[in-house]
């Protein structure tokens, strides 16, 4: 028989001094109650109760056993109540894993507002550019960029979309010209992650259909924040996600290019172990994440389709007007995305690599 249930039955018999009354209180038959007590005595090899036709009394072993069992059952009840409370009230440590750059640029304000709203939850954030095993590593929530989690025990939910944008600094465009067609990227130094080195093919969709371009990478970094820094310094053309460069585009520090062309979007998803018995801290954090990104304008639209903020269009126009003549005597490339492509002056390509972790 179930030992824990037998212990509960024994305590009830001892408290009420009767098998019959205990059976009524527990909604069991008297025979079942008797078997539970007999099973305990058989397991312990000692008598716990003295039985007469008129009354029950505890043996010395029974009194010792009753005292200890009470503590065990009280502790167990306390643990159960604590677990139930944690499952219904947001409390405890919330372990989160997210990609490094997304975490630094987009996750911090969400965690801050969540912690203010639920002060009994302690966020524990791990940033890592790898496929984390949520169950094995004990994470409550994972955020993934452009990854698919295939596991029966893991639930995924779309969070937001990252729009990939071709961009460069005004200073770079002033020196090397403004590409208006994906083919122009062949003669510009491109900034990329190491996995994209060696001429990975980029697939653009535009007014003339699908355009495939194999870019030549001049600078590599294993972290997109480093690529952003290179782009801000005018070291080449970069293809970066909207969640990383949204403010740079708004301020004019970076200029969006190839406005008539689109690259595949990057889906950002939430992952968490199982829907069953989801703790309140996990459920409320997921809801908070979804709500935050639903109302964040910079994540809710494609920044390439919006009109440039005041100052950016003027900066681009000034950049184009100031472009020097090309070596072959051709006119500089117009900033108009709809204008036919003109010859580009091939920009010098710095040769360096930055592949160490940040």
Provide the CATH topology of the largest domain.
D-Maltodextrin-Binding Protein, domain 2
CATH superfamily of the largest domain: Periplasmic binding protein-like II
Radius of gyration: 33 Å
Major sheet: arrangement of strands? 13-7-12-8-11-15
Largest sheet: 6 strands, mixed
Helix content: 40-55%
Keywords: DNA-binding, Transcription, Transcription regulation
Domain HTH lysR-type: 1-59
Organism: Paraburkholderia lacunae
Region (Disordered): 331-358
Explain the overall architecture.
- The chain has three domains: 3-88, Orthogonal Bundle (Arc Repressor Mutant, subunit A), CATH 1.10.10; 92-163 and 267-299, Periplasmic binding protein-like II (D-Maltodextrin-Binding Protein, domain 2); 164-264 and 302-354, D-Maltodextrin-Binding Protein, domain 2.
- The protein is 40% helix and 22% strand.
- The protein is built from twelve helices and 15 strands.
- It has helices spanning 3-16, 19-26, 30-44, 60-88, 100-117, 134-137, 170-176, 224-232, 242-251, 280-295, 297-300, 312-321; strands spanning 49-51, 56-58, 92-98, 121-127, 141-145, 154-162, 164-168, 190-192, 201-206, 209-214, 217-221, 237-241, 255-256, 266-273, 352-354.
- Helix 1 (3-16) crosses helix 4.
- Mean pLDDT is 77; it is low at 297-301 and 303-358.
- Residues 1-59 form the HTH lysR-type domain.
